[in-house]
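In practice, a research group might receive sequence data for several interacting partners and want a quick structural hypothesis before committing to experiments. The following worked case mirrors that situation: the sequences arrive first, and a predicted assembly follows.
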Amino acid sequence: MGIRVGIDTGGTFTDLVAVDEEAGRWHVAKVPSNPKDPVSAVAAALEAAGLDPERISIVVVGTTIGINAVLTRTGARVLYLTTKGFEDVPFIQRISRKYHYDFRWRKPTPLVHRPDCIGVDERLDEEGRELVPLATRELERVLESVESRADGDRLAIAVCFLFSYLDPEHELATRTFLEERTGLPVSLSHEVAPIWREYERGTTAIVDAYLKPLLDEYVSGLGDALVSQGISSRPSLLKSNGGHALAAEARERPAHLLLSGIAGGAIGGAHFARLAGTEKGIVVDMGGTSCDVCLIVGGEPLYSSDFEIEYGFPVSVPSVSTKTIGAGGGSIGWVDSGGFLQVGPGSAGADPGPACYGRGGEETTLTDANLALGRLNPDFFLGGRLALDASLSRAALGRLAAKLGRDAVDVAASMVRVANENMANAIRIVTVEQGIDPREFAIVAMGGAGPTHAAEIAAAIGIGRVIVPANPGLASAFGALAAQVRVDAVKSVYLTDVRATAAEVSRLFTELESRSVADFEAQAGGVASHEVRRSIAMRYQGQNYETEVTVPGGELADDDLPGVYEQFARLYESFYGYRLDGIPIELVRLQVVVVGEDRRLPELVQGGGPAARDESREVWFPEHGFVATPVVRRDSLELGSVRGGPAIVEEMDSTIVVPPAWRLESGRRGVLELVREEG
Amino acid sequence: MSGRWLPITTQVWETAVTPCDCCGQVVPKRLWVAEVEGEEHRFCSPACVELYRDYVLPKLKGEPRT
Amino acid sequence: MGGGIDPVTLAIVNNAFVNICREMGITMMRTAFSPIFNEGLDFSCVLFDRHGNMIGQAEFCPAQIAASLFIVRWTVEELGVDSFEEGDVVLHNDPYRGGAHIPEHSVIRPVFFDGELFGFVANVGHLAEIGGKAVGSFAADATEVFQEGLRIPPVKIVSRDRPNMDLWRLIMANHRTPRNTWGDLNAQIGSLRVAERSVQLLLERYGRDLVEEAAEELMDYSERWMRTEIRAIPDGRYAFTARMEDDGVVERPVTFHVEVTVDGDRLIVDWTGTDPQVRGPINATYGVTAGATYNAIFHLTDQSIPKNSGVYRPISIIAPPGSAVNVVYPGPSVGGNTETHPKLADMVIAALAQALPGRVAAAEGGTACNFLFGGFHPRTGDYYANYHLEGGGWGAKDYDDGNDAIIVKNGNCRNTPVEIFETRYPLRTIEYSLIPDSGGPGRMRGGLGTRRILRVEPSTEVTVNALFDRTKPGFGAWGLAGGGTGGRAAIMVRRKGDAEFRTFSEAFGTVSPSKFTNILLEEGDEVLIDSPGGGGYGDPRARDRERVARDVYEGFVSPERARDLYGWECP
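A structural hypothesis for the assembly, expressed as tokens:
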């Protein structure tokens, strides 16, 4: 027992949420981020929270440092070693285009230079058998190439040999040799991303090497910052898979930290969905520039390994599956050349920001539209820390309205509607990709702007329930706090229901599991109670996309397998409406997840603020126009209270819009719910 | 536009399709038969007669376009 | 906006139309069997009103833009709108009825709402094996459609949700890998049901009247927007002529000619002057020629115009029947879709180069490097067939270099990873690399082509077919504004024990070096596949020195060529 701390370092703010498990007390802090020195904002947040350093048991940090270094191309110089004949694979990529009819699009530029891609004479076949052995002489030749390039740059080595996921011997021997002789960090593809598809695996290894020196510095800096705050516990980092790991371990696999800054939202969203008693949620985390959407199924975020930094630039590691849409408070309204009103993906960002910020922004943003429609309170934005100028919003809307030949309120209402429909469409696509009917789901509204739009987005999809956590703007930091230690391990296999035996599948799972548990203990900093989950990704032979089927732990018996295949066929049928009996089923990947046991967090305190005053203002709603709408502060809502819409609920970092056909339920556990009235 | 619709009737063993004399696209069910400058042509639609008259004929005659 | 529906609702209905088509496509991608289908995404999805107007589409493969536009309209017209009942699915792949080529199979399902026909959902997809004279159904020396595969006119493969099993069995009996056909057709038909439900939900939500009115207005809107775009192109007549090296049957170049007339807010694209229909299968169907024309125009106009029937109204296409741009029965056409389409599209673009110098690009590699092979797998004994293709260099533009190694503009497929390829087929990949110096020189450089070398594994033999172009001197991707020609394609063979690679004409006596079928290769034989580079743009000597230096550093351009063509002095 002690104080657990979650920190989210975003582009604009660094947020902190801490829980004192003994006292059952919560602490929050919000400080400006410092992109040039990300560690300093962490230190500032810890200081601002005023916690007793000696009682801090764990600090989990979500960071965007990895993704930022890739986007700004400020990582190490990478030497890429690969099977001879395939040095150009990072350049050739997958040959498809982002858009059908666009001459302007450029292929992603690899993080390596072509002269730094070095062919190694070695070769395995598709069953992992050695066709060309890796000779010591060859390694010495490679060493010369490496040494000739060591000219003062920050250097790191990535190795990707064909079929190394079947037999890693050649990659391991290469690392042993080069580490010893050069002291440079070496990332091996079969460890970073043990999947088939050489471009995806190789690129992921390159990203890993590219970030290694940087992450080393960051982690050292983080450790020093904690020490300087008098904190004795070692820092942990949030990984792309939404689990946390000791920073000293996590830095060994930087590719797995790429989504560290995004994963917190999904984990936080899943936590609040469960808290509200549902296993099915759609997290809509909408901030100033964009909106991250993540599905929660079975109480957990969905995971995938097909994240792309940009089109055609994959980082194939287990990640919470998040789709980012260019829709946020700063999204700009504009008229396309066909005369349609569009909103986003362009954003006014935080600087100059929306017109109403009064920092010289000329564009009409979604925040301006919300302000003009009475949905935002100019005197209580960010809890009153940023005064909004409604006249600037009106002027900006007027300019856009003139282009459309309509009045300003009409344009503001249309902007909100277009933005909501864009998000609703994106959510539909995300659910269809999973074979899911979104109407059975609740929206978990997070981020500063999420709760403002959530009910109307929900209505557009046919969803009748919205969950709004306490401090929606801090939900990512909350996610870092709620995260468990988690290891996702994958093994690519090539089996069919005709050839697979229970003994072989069991053996592969056992190997994978013992390695995963060892990793888990390293990342947790010792033995800890955990749960192991196994699944197999399967498909009908010939297909390219898999369905994941859960399998029981322990030794499998031969008559267990038919049940697993039947489960696959049923899942397939439930998604697509038919099954294909008689066609062989391929087992493509074995997956093991080792995850720490769920920690019970004390309930967030709700209410307790001053009693509601009789406040109201004119707020615009579709089909109603401007309506006198009660405005309440969130901390004045009584536990268990229910009130009908329309209503506006204001809190420090967000504004909740309750439309007329919805009611507001102030549930227990610090979670508000918006529920659509029947009929 | 003067002309008439001519239904296309095919036997079951006739598996080819009929193209438009002017633009070349498939005419699935009925042809528009029209006379242009004294010659009868089979078109996909009345609109194609205009294309023929305004564009194809002048080009065939080598007339400069205005 | 002229009509009665507010623009916001219009935009929302339009997004819903597109979304329904995308949902259909994603469902297909996840459930289809042929790699060309699920990995290559060689399919398109469309939504039609009951009058045969396309009101929404999500093409995953640009080759089908025209095919998907015509097939539904013409099929509904041919069968008669009254012949469709709820739960029917019509199948057809007849290249003469709007299709792009015979491997592409269309399925069409009517959507009823409250017992009344609203419209149709449909998709077009490329099945990897449909019989005919050569495995993979890409018979590069076919002289008639009957050699290209099983031809299916519009027939009901499903009647009122009951599969017509007699028809299914007939199809299965004529394809070499019927199990894949079974999976692919099920994926296509299954996705129609998903789309049908989504259309019905949309109608429930907004009401039939509003949706129908919105569809009408959206078509008018797209038409107006396209007319605005065309009006911005200077009026005039712009012509271009190009050649392909041979047709696969007769060793003689084939000439194509286009004349584009910009007349105010309309375009006439006239292919008259193209050679008569040729013996071999590089003939384009009407669907291919129209598709290539639209593809080019979409590259030159605003991408965000909603793609519905309205967008095509200002464009007239003339493709003389019986010519190489409009094949008539029973002429062959399987290669027209992959080889002829990109050249036709680049011709329209090149013709407009003077009018739109800032928007055009030089020619791309322009061959899909179709390489098809099959046989019995030595490990499993199963019969396999594969359709393999390559990306080539793209043409340079006034403002930037062309991309390296990108699929032809009529497709948007991905390549097959070597690890997947070797797991499935008994051919070993020896090399997969960029070809330095293959980009056409210019102030902006054309993209590079790729080289792949494959070797037949021990204890097996493989039957191979190829359908390439641009392998002969003088047929490379053209440059623009003084830019040079891209490097050539190659498909060559080195028999086991032979010292060097030779053309298939030299080694096997094929008529065409780039188009042939049914060549048997044995253990240790090697195949070399070079994809072509893209054309350059502008005078290479005017190229920015930093760009030249970077090309030399990265090895995209050799120091010798940098010196000779770019006038670059090594510092």
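Before designing any experiment, note the following. The first strand of chain C starts at residue 43 and ends at 49. Residues 7-224 of chain C form one domain.
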